[in-house]
Amino acid sequence: MTTKSIAVELAPGTSKRRAVLRLGLPAAGEQFLNLLVGLADTYLVGNMAAATVARVGYGTETALAAVGTAQQIVWTLTTLFMAVAMGTTVLVAREIGAGNPEEANRVLRQSLLLGAGVGLLATLLSFIFARPMMGVLGAAPEVIDQGAVYLQIATLAMLPAALMFVCSAALRGAGDTRTPLYAMLVVNALNIAVAWLLVNGNLGLPALGVAGSAWGAAVGRGAGGVLLIAILLRGRSGLKLEALSTLRPRLMWRVLRLGLPFAAEQFVFQGALLIFVRVINSLGVVAFAAHSVTITVESISFLPGFGFAVAATTLVSQHLGAHQPEAAEESGHEAFRQAAIFMGTIGVLLFLMPRVFLGFFVDDRDVVEMAVRPLQLVGLTQPLLAALFIYSGALRGAGDVKFPLLSKLFSTWLVRLPLALLLVEVVGWGLTGAWIAMITDFTIQGIISWLRFRQGKWRTIKV
Fold it and tell me: What is the pTM of this model?
C-alpha cells in the first residue's frame, strides 16, 4: 500500500468497517498461520504412531506436555521480539499517517538493529538454560528431557524469527497486513512438511518425535525471517530496507519507549503464568496435557481478536498522525464490533461442540474429557475477550502503553493467581477451577480496557 492510498483510506467519510476488515482479516489470517505452527506440532505429537512411541521411549501425553511447556517458554522469550515490534508498528503508522514515509523507513532500520540484538539474546537464553527453564515450570523429569530438546532446536531460529516479527510489524504499521500473511504461508508449508517427515519418520526418515516437531518450527520460522528481509530489500508498501545507517539512539529509544511497557506487560503476564502453570502441573500429566490442548483450541477463538487488534492499533495510530482523533475513536469501536461478532460465533461452536474440537488435536479420552468444561467456559466469554484484545490494541496505537501494563498487573496477579489457588487447592475444582480463574481475569481486563478507551485521555498522548 502506498502512502497515497493510505491517505485516501484515512479521508473523512471512508467506511470504517471496510478499513477495519481490510486490515483485520489478513492479520487474523496471519495470526492463524502463526498459531498453526504450534497447532501442527500439537497434532503431530498428539498422534504419534505406535512404532514412533516404541522408538523414542515416551507416549503422547509426555510429548504433548513437553511441547506445550517448551512452547510456553518460547512464547515468553518471544516477548522480547514483540516489544520491538509493537513500538515499530505504532511509530511507522504514526509517520505514515502524518505523510512522512522517509521517517517511517528510518524507524524500520533502527528497529531491525534492535530486533537482531534481542534475537541473539533469546538464542543464548534458550540454548544455555533450556533444562532449568523447563524445571521452573514444575514439569515431570521425562517432560523436562524432551522439552529441553525442543527448546535447543528452536534456538536455531530465534534470530531470523526476531527479524520476521519486526518486518511484519513495520508492514502492518504501513497498512500492509497481506505481506506478513503470505510470509506465514511459507513458514507453515515448511513447518508442516518438515515436522510431518520427522515426527513419525515418513518417507524413510528417522522418527524423532518431539525433536521432529521442533525442527519443523525452526526451519519454517527461519525461512520466514529471511523471506521478509528479502522483500523489504526490494521495497514494499512504501517501506524499503536500504543499507543500515549508524545507530540513532534517540529513535531507538522512541521505539523502546512504546515497546518496553508492552514487554513489561507480557513479562508480568508470563511471570504469573509460570506460577499458574505450576498449579496445573501439580494436578498431573493428564491435567497438563488437557490444559495444553485446551489452550491450543482456545487460540482459534482468539484469531479475530488478534487480527482486529492489529487493525485498531494501526488505524488509531494513523488517524492520530493525520490529526483525526474522532476517526481514531470510531475505528477502535468498529474493530471491537467486528471482533465481537466473529469471536461470539466461534464461542457458540466451542460451547456446543467441545469434543469435536478437542478430538481433532488429541486421541486420548481422558485428556479430552478433562478439557471439555474449560473449553466451554472459553466459549461463553468471547465478547468480553474481544473487548480486551481490541481496546488494549487501540490504546497501544494511541501511545497509551502503560495502562494495559497496569491493568494486567492488577488483574493477573491479584485476581487470577489467588483465585486459581483457592479453587484448585482449597475448593478442589481441579483444572476447571484454574480456568474459571483465568476467564475471570480476562473478563476484568476487558471491562477496564473499554472504560479507559471511552475516557479519551489517549487523544493527546505524544509518541
Answer: 0.82
